[in-house]
Amino acid sequence: MSGALQDWKSQKKPFAAIASVPVFWLALFFVAPMAIVWLYSFGENAGPADINISGTLDNYKRAIEWLYLSIFLKSLAVAALTTLICLIIGFPVAMAITFAAPKWRPWLLLGIMLPFWTNLLIRTYALMALMGTNGYMNKGLGGLWEGASWLRTLVGMQPLEAWTPIQLLYNNFAVVLGLVYVHLPFMVLPLYSALDRLDKSLIEASLDLGAGHFKTFMQIVVPLAAPGIVAGVMITLVPALGAYLTPDLMGGTDSQMIANVIERQFKRANDWPFGAALSFLLIYAMFILIALQSMKANKTKEVR
Amino acid sequence: MALFRSAPIAPLEYTRKLWMRGWVGLTMLFLYAPLLVLMVFSFNDSKRNVVWKGFTLKYYEKALNNDSLVEALVNSLTIAFLATIISLVIGALAAVMLWRFRFPFKGLVEGTMSLPIIVPEICLGVAFLIFFAKVEWPTDLMWPLNLSAITIAHITFCFPFVAMVVRARLASFNKEEEEAAKDLGATEWQAFRDVLLPHIQPGLVAGALLAFTLSLDDFVITFFTSGPDTITFPVKVYSMVRFSVTPEVNAASTLLILLTVILTFIALKVQGVKGITETH
Questions:
Q1: ipTM of the complex as predicted
Q2: TM spans, by residue (chain B) (predicted)?
């Protein structure tokens, strides 16, 4: 009998006692609010605080105008670039944790996880302080600049002009760097758990049979870690696409992402139906990404 | 000479290779340098946080005397505490429900429950903004009731995480133990309390820590849900960062980072390093 599910009809009382609270909560405080947003997305503003749900598709038509579509595509591009950088930085880190001495492994993992548990706003603020015109990043670049200038004088050339601090914040570069900073732990953890399950004797066999480290990595490690890579990509891409705080604080006027546009509809622009349509488009985009992932996951299962 | 005496590097000891160590070191530097600079400079005796001017605790004093900052911190901790307790109950019930019963529309319920994890924060925040406006949720209640809207929102996105962690733990439970208890005369409730609950306890601890951190961390959903007079720590820090960067923010942030580290070490004591890393 162990492991078998009980039919709810044979256990009506315990089932009701256990199921009622979670189902009730989910229906009232998740399904109902989402349903209202969905309905609003087919509505129009009828007054300052009055929305008439008329079944119009105008909000969606407006959302696919180039102005908004381009912001949407740009958000996708920024999120994809963030994910790619996280993957490139994160993969060697995950490898290093996997092959570290057993007594070091948990501490390295903890080192990756502690920032993940630290408040997002504080982390963003800390990075901003470092990147300001007077911050250490500018000082470091200034030091490199002066070093280069000194080298030039050493070989008898004119020294470079004095270093002027550059604006590192409030542009697209800052947004991508901020998103990488925030999402890196999301990528490393699933990669590690995939690499940890990998049969290490396969790598040894590949090396013994004459393949180099790079070839082994590309042809053995990467394919076997594919489920972890897909999971890491999803877990980074999805929140990065919906990121609000990083582009808001670190971005400039031209680096707003879709979440910032949605926020504006609900605060300054006060166009709730249009904001509702945009946020449902973002949710649909997430669904498409997740559907693609599960299709990919099913395929890998079939191959095995 | 120790460098030369150490054993040769085996093919799989990637971690002992220099470039690999450098890579990990640089990544850790990238992750920790901003936080460490922030913490060190919270003790700096200068308004402009650029050069070290000497040690001072005056910004901690200022932060702790800043009534609205302290109020925000107390609010955040209260919300996190309440949201954790309620999410723990709802999440554990949801996990037991999905693990134990077969019922109609189970797939639908399960799928819907994972949605608060997937749906972008901004969409959830917007949904709560509209929902609480629509039902005309009172905003002028006395403390702590004025935090109810935010707490409800936090519970909604925290309890699915708790359910996930607890369910993973339930998978290793032997149902025969529960049946044996019942055969020996335990009631449904006694079997739950004395057999099932002790088994899922590590899952509950992990879930509670996760819920507490998620709640304390949340800015976007709170930003949309909070009324004009209720302010939480992240929302307060946001407005301080936005409008005037003061060293007080460094001091208050350092306190919150320390709280995170302390919570992590409590978790370590309770579960051990392995237990923590396995729950993620």
A1: 0.85
A2: 21-43, 79-101, 113-133, 145-166, 203-224, 249-268
